[in-house]
Amino acid sequence: MHPAPLLARIPPGSAVLFFVQMASTLGYAVLYSTLVLYATQRLGYPNDKAAAVMGVFGAFNYGLHLFGGMLGGRWMSNRNLFVGGMLLQVAGCAALTRGDEAGLLWGLAMFLSGCGLNVTCLNMMLTQRFAPEDPRREAAFLWNYAGMNVGFFVGFAVAGHYEQTQAYTALFTFATLGNVVAIVLALAFWRTLADRDTPLTLLGPTAWRWRFAAATGVMLGLVPVLWWALQRPGDTAWALKGFCALVALWLALLTWRHPVPAERQRMQAYGVLTLGSLVFWSLYQMAPSGLQLFAVGNVDLQLGGWRIAPQWVQNINTLVIVIGGPWLAHLFARWRALGWPVDVPQQFAASLLLMGLGFLALPLGIQLAGPDGRVAFGWLATSYVLQSLGELLISPVGYAMIGRLAPRQHQGLMMGAWMLVTGLASLFAADFSGWVAQPADGSPLSSNPAYALLFTQLGLGSLGVGAVMLAMVPRLRRLIG
What we know:
The protein is mostly helical. The chain has a single domain, classed as Growth Hormone, Chain: A, CATH 1.20.1250.20. The chain is 78% helix and 1% strand. It is built from 18 helices and 2 strands. It has a two-stranded antiparallel sheet. Strand 1 and strand 2 form a beta hairpin.
């Protein structure tokens, strides 16, 4: 097929967002994969404190997406909010190059203020390029998700390279440059990425400028607030859990009072799927904390005479996503063309079952560990592959699902709340990661029993929730319509 007709079928801006997504992910990939190691190896944090900071980092990153969904398109255009957020990320990564605790706290505060608010913008800009019933929406989000994971792959690879020599200043400089590339791409295609059919587009110049100034003030004002919160991660975690509970009550009230019956039913389906998503992401978010600490202390990372950097282990996930995303989009299209039903409730149930199996592979590996207590790398790799397959089923489809289930007036809020669930899951993941104390002698034999019990409980829990979700598939189908 000639490329011109193919390109003509892609809504303007969709391809650009693939590359913007890829570049903007680099800085986050570095921090996501390195924060716990940097805190323990360079700053001397104990494992539980490092996991707590990582939990709060993830909670704010995803939790602020809720406010990003409310600001974007209402108080500041999505493209303006994205670029402003990236500028804060540049400043945050530059602060981290100081190499001390003050640089860590201020750097994370600036980075989170930007990253937390601007990620929703990318999803909303992509959503606006498709009509609500456009069948290309799911494939576009799968491709965009693949682009994000290309960024993760590069970020993890570079992070692992510099971690080998603990050259953290060079690593954070690389993250800074990646954020700059995302800004350049967005500015180069500024008109292409313009907002479509948002409340802000209906305002006059004076009201637009007033809202722009207010949103800018919110972004900058978040920095000292987050700096303060990051200094007391335990108290902050409890406060964030309480806030998430209030948001859940708010969404439940909006659903109950929504006047359109068909839309109300779809919002009910959204609520059920959100609970399943919380279970999945609570286990998935252990990758940069509990699972990474387990890999460093309890897994044999020597393979073929080479030491595998901890960040490189997470590239198992990115490879599965990058290869599997486009393939899955093609496979689902074929199945549906043949009349085989493949829908969101089925995919959510399957993702939870895969997550459960992934965690149950780890205690089996512990049982078969060598005399020194170290688990063969293949068991950890198997766990990551199963978790990644589950992610592929739930994450990009979850983003695309918002465009179908959310009424237009609640679309930004529900997109932000969907990401807030991942933030809450990050807090639960930090709790799980802190259940296994760091052994005084540093021996895997001392901590293997506790890890085996934890992974078994989490794996069986995920399987149980997945089975319940599978039983609810017919009911969810009726609610979604």
